[in-house]
Amino acid sequence: MLTLREDHEIESLLMKSEALLKGHFILSSGLHSNRYVQCAKFFQYPAYAELAAKKLAKLYEDPPIDVVIGGAFGGITIAYELARVLGVRGIFCERVEGVFQLRRGFEIRQGEKVLIAEDVVTTGKSIDEVAQLVKQHGGEVVGVASLVDRHMPDPEKLPYRFEWLHSVQAEAYDPADCLLCKEGKLPAVKPGSRGMK
After folding, report:
1. What is the rounded distance in angstroms from the CA atom of residue 182 to the CA atom of residue 188?
2. Cα separation values, 79 from 32, 108, 156, Å
3. Of 47, 50, 93, 136, which is least surrounded by CB within 10 A?
4. Are strands 20-26 and 172-173 parallel, antiparallel or unpaired?
5. pTM for the full model?
6. 3: phi then psi, degrees, rounded to nearest 5
7. Per the annotation, where are the binding residues for 5-phospho-alpha-D-ribose 1-diphosphate?
């Protein structure tokens, strides 16, 4: 299991930017949760994004990195900032009919060392999708860097080096077994980039 990490500076800025939400949420994975991390509110402040990127870059000083890639939309800002700090190319992929693809002339060259950047990692599903895209284009995934680890249920399933700044513990439920649904006090909302319900 992954250890929990506490970065009090990042936690303070997450709170200050109102990026940590409490309620009844539908995650992009389909799971329900009592907490949601809306990193877009954190990243609306360039100084916060720069600070996070510098902290993550220190964790990846050793391996050679040619390009940083983020998945649209959550990974775009942190990928750009991290690439800027590392002095390498920064690109992003986006979903076309539900599948991540490289567009806008972005490319990953054969043998390039690629760092995947994400705002929040929960189940690792999106990371795996981006990693498959990197491999399809001949790149090598050297690791994953994230602002927040939402304490994934099965972190051992992520087969890459994974570095993050702050852990956020939250309950996660299968929709059929969701205690929040059974209580019926709060409607389930989907605040992420894949739509509202």
Report:
1. 11
2. 27, 14, 23
3. 47
4. unpaired
5. 0.86
6. -80, 155
7. 95, 118-126
Domain count within the chain: 1
- Count of residues in the chain: 197
Q: Which positions make up the binding site?
A: 95, 118-126, 150
What is the edge-to-edge ordering of all strands in the sheet holding 172-173?
20-26, 32-37, 172-173
C-alpha Rg value of the chain to the nearest Å: 16
Q: Residues at the annotated binding site for orotate?
A: 122, 150
Note the pLDDT of residue 29: 77
Query: Rounded to whole angstroms, how far apart are CA atoms 66 and 115?
Result: 8
Q: What is the mean pLDDT of residues 143-166?
A: 82
**Residue 109 domain flag:** yes
Q: What is the mean pLDDT of residues 156-166?
A: 85
State pLDDT tens for residues 1-55: 567 888 999 999 999 999 998 899 998 778 899 988 999 999 999 999 999 999 9
- Taking 80 as the threshold, does the pLDDT of residue 152 lie above it? no
Structural domain boundaries, residue 51: 8-183
**Average pLDDT across the chain, whole number:** 90
Answer for the pair 89, 102: CB distance below 8 angstroms, yes or no.
Answer: no
Using an 8 Å Cβ cutoff, are 182 and 164 in contact?
no
Read off the tokens for 71: 């998945």
DSSP 3-41: PP---HHHHHHHHHTT-EEEEEEE-TTS-EEEEEE-HHH
